[in-house]
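In the current project phase, our protein records have gained a structure token line. A sample record follows, to show the layout:
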Amino acid sequence: MRFYPSKPALSGYVSGRMTHVVGATGFLLNRGRLTVQVGPKPFFGIKIQGDFSGAQSGKLRADSTVAGFSLTDAYVQLVPPPDWAPAGSVLAQLHPAIVAGQFKTPYSLEYLTSFASLKTVDRSQAVDRLSQKRDIGAMAQVGWVRFATLSGAVVNGEGPNATSNADKSQMLLSRLTITPVSFLALSAKVAREGADHAWGYDGRIVWRALTVEGEGLYRKRATSSTVNLDAGGGYALVAYKILPWLEPVYKYDRYWDTRTTNTGSAVTTASTHSTWNVFGVNLLSSPEWLRLQLDWERRNVEPTPGRTNVYLAQLIAIF
């Protein structure tokens, strides 16, 4: 869990993107995040974050062309006071914490990574389509020194900014991370809400200028009263800073799903397979407050639309 400053601190980032595909080019202000964090007490922290970008739905006024505001994070964090256990004891090394409010659920490695720190412009297909993201509820975490961290959460399962829990049930999530050496982290995670089952694994190596990471995600659930989804996928990525300001990246990204429709009188099955090969380069300032990302995504989606080349440029300013 993070530590919060004793006085309110502002931070955030702004991101603009250009996309070129099949002779068409588009521009988008896809992120405009502003974060306020404060820890009025050593054992108590607060985080509030909002998104003001053009990607948000809704308008400031009925006659406005300016997009509105979306709350992304709003939670409180509680940790024991510094002297809660004798120094050097087992309890003192557990680092427990509790979070309540709206937060990133403890599930996907790539989604838990800040958008401003991603090595490629897009997150992987499986993370976008299968991962639990932000939700409303409570989360607890306990760790043992730096070697292991266990997180668990109970949330509505309705996503962020939901005004009610429509199905009156909760989703349970858990993530275990093992760090055998300082530059390697390995994790496993599970999630469940009734007949909705999700699970996966991930790993990351950060050693000097080299980053290697990968993740696998799988999910089975009913998407409606007649359709069942069985899906999975993941990615593998390698990035290396040839120079402090130059970082080539390659990412292999695969997703598949099978949807079975049972109308009572007939059962039909439809499958989709999608593979993206992403070749990119990141141009970085020093210190890293400005990041220009240039990606070429070679997409192959079967049965349709087949092969497509997508070219992306994204500029992120962090403050």
The chain has a mean pLDDT of 93. Residues 125-130 form the longest helix (6 residues). The first strand starts at residue 9 and ends at 21. The radius of gyration is 21 Å.
